[in-house]
């Protein structure tokens, strides 16, 4: 065999070996997806059961529902008092979206914080499953509650604006509400990661909710200047703008894309934070920042 033939055979073998190695890597990664999907699905079901134990249907009807409706009514009336019918409609749209924050950004963080309070957070870190995935799977119950709260707040918001045509337009924007339920959950997750290392979880979660109320343009369109810059990085800001654009006959897609990117940013921050927190806890032996 000539040297050129041997060289070609060697290159061909190397390429085939590299191709086979790459295929095996991809196959291994894909094989891990169903391995994670099944236990995470079971975790989501367990999280739903845990949620129903903590918040049985009677408690939901007696406490969660009235709060969502009364909060929505207050915000719409506040908008009407500030600027008349036009402001009331803008506030109704924002208030129907903000109704989800109580579940996604206020109650949801308890999924992670309670693990620290009960001294079981270290056990989650010893499993083969990612802690972020376990927390996110259990968080879905609160995401669903937030979405349902917004849907139930719609009739109250529309009733106080005397604009019955607003209901079908808001219902048709259901994908936007779903998007905001996910982005506010990502924000709540990031807040929970910060709170888990401090004894100020109640303060931090409430602070997050009030920041959204103050800077996300819930009552009026997003302001300019420094408040506008703060609101630009908060969830709900672009989602509410997308809702208003949709109900006014405009194009909501640019705002929806901005809302999705905002949620992705908070999700990445939460993932980075929970990874750093686990490493720091292993070094110091405590979840609290010293």
Account of the 3D structure:
- This protein is globular.
- Helix 3 packs parallel to helix 8 (174-195), helix 8 runs parallel beside helix 12 (253-284) and helix 11 (237-247) packs antiparallel against helix 12.
- The model is unreliable at 1-30 (pLDDT under 50).
- It has helices spanning 3-54, 57-98, 101-107, 110-117, 121-125, 131-161, 166-172, 174-195, 201-215, 225-232, 237-247, 253-284.
- The longest helix has 52 residues, at 3-54.
- By secondary structure, the protein is mainly alpha-helical.
Distance between the termini: 71 Å
Question: How much helix is in the residues?
Answer: over 70%
Average pLDDT works out at 85
Note the run of SSEs as H and E: HHHHHHHHHHHH
- Structural class determined from secondary elements: mainly alpha
User: What sort of overall outline do the alpha carbons produce when their principal axes are compared?
Assistant: globular
Number of helices: 12
Largest sheet: none
In percent, how much strand structure appears in the residues?
A: under 5%
Structural descriptors:
290 residues; mainly alpha; globular; disordered N terminus
């Amino acid at each position: 065999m000539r040297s050129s033939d041997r060289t070609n055979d060697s290159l061909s073998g190397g390429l085939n070996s590299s191709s086979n190695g790459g295929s095996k890597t991809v196959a291994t990664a894909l094989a891990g997806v169903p391995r994670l999907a099944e236990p995470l699905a079971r975790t989501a079901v367990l999280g739903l059961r845990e949620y129903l134990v903590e918040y049985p249907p009677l408690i939901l009807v007696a406490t969660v529902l009235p709060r969502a409706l009364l909060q929505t009514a207050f915000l719409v009336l506040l908008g009407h008092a500030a600027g008349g019918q036009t402001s009331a409609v803008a506030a109704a749209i924002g208030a129907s979206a903000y109704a989800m924050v109580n579940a996604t950004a206020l109650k949801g963080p308890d999924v992670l914080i309670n693990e620290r309070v009960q001294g079981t957070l270290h056990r989650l870190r010893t499993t083969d499953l990612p802690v972020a995935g376990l927390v996110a799977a259990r968080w879905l119950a609160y995401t669903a509650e937030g979405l349902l709260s917004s849907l139930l707040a719609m009739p109250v918001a529309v009733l106080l604006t005397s604009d019955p045509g607003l209901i079908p337009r808001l219902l048709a924007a259901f994908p936007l509400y779903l998007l905001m339920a996910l982005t506010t959950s990502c924000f709540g997750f990031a807040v929970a990661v910060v709170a888990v290392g401090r004894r100020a979880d109640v303060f931090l979660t409430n602070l997050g909710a009030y920041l959204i109320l103050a800077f996300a343009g819930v009552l009026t369109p997003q302001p300019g200047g420094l408040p506008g810059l703060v609101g630009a990085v908060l969830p709900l800001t672009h989602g509410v703008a997308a809702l208003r654009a949709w109900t006014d006959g405009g194009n909501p897609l640019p705002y929806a894309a901005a809302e999705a990117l905002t949620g992705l940013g908070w999700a990445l921050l939460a993932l980075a934070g929970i990874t750093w927190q686990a490493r720091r806890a292993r070094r110091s032996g405590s979840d609290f920042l010293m």
